């Protein structure tokens, strides 16, 4: 195995993403050692039992000797956690995150800048509907995109750090791309945030109807509904923070979505089969494009495998 990219990394937030990074960094030799800290006593105890690395009692203990600190907490918690981490990080170390929203996350990290650390926000487009340290697995990032949103106008030292972080995520199996944070948030609003909102909404509507239909919504859920329930089982805290922090882009997508939905509603009402055919045929070509781009499997059973389905919130 070649030399690790970082001698020592620290992960703050030992849930699905944090524990997956810990597992992958160790499994693929991307880090010489891994320290983990989580605010929850219970999560720390569970992480210790899973042998994910050196679980520390304080945030300071985890980050103080790290070459790279990766914040894996909900987006709403990033600002105070970044501030607390930077206070104990060594000069020249990298501070990054995995938050699903990038404009607010970047602002949160940059607001903690003390001029001694190198701040490079990031987001792996890989995940599942599960949470907690037990839910992670080392292959989560294999073949997935990892988006970095580096700051503009920085020096050569910063550029080297961006390259090092790129090498780290590449070693974990990801394909790395850099992007402007606002553009990231517009793209993810339609590819991830709106689909989750629709799933939360359809499950909520069905939940209300469930009492009317006496259990039949769940009984016959294989008709399509069950796939929405999987997405809607995602962590409520994470998704609350995504919507609160990517408000504008999500509302813009939602406006367009509502118009298109109204057009379908009109076509059903007036029996416009041609319009329905045209829209459904177009949708089918997009599914093919997603499979051709390697973003899902064309296998039956919805491409599920033993590691679960990768969504990327
Ligand atoms: P998770 O499994 O719930 O893990 C988050 C962990 O952070 C929890 O153990 C939580 O503890 C802990 N935490 C919360 N506040 C903290 C604080 N102030 N200091 C230290 N630890 C704290 O969530 P996740 O799915 O890994 O998501 C983590 C981040 O990854 C989020 O920013 C999310 O947007 C991003 N992300 C998620 C996905 C996905 O599909 N899940 C994909 C890509 C990126 P408690 O549970 O006790 O609060």
Widest beta sheet: strand line-up: 3-2-1-4-5-6
Per CATH, the superfamily of the largest domain is NAD(P)-binding Rossmann-like Domain
Oligomeric form:
single chain
The poorly predicted ranges are: none
Helicity level: 40-55%
The succession of helices and strands, N to C, reads EHEHEHEHEHEEEHEHHHHHH
CATH topology-level name of the largest domain: Rossmann fold
Q: What's the alpha carbon Rg, rounded to whole Å?
A: 21 Å
Q: Let me know the average pLDDT.
A: 94
Which overall shape is indicated by the principal axes computed on the Cα atoms? globular
The top level CATH class name of the largest domain: Alpha Beta
Query: How many helices does DSSP assign?
Result: 12
CATH architecture of the largest domain: 3-Layer(aba) Sandwich
Strand content: 5-15%
Family: Belongs to the prephenate/arogenate dehydrogenase family.
Organism: Hyphomonas jannaschiana VP2
Protein name: prephenate dehydrogenase
GO biological process, one term: tyrosine biosynthetic process
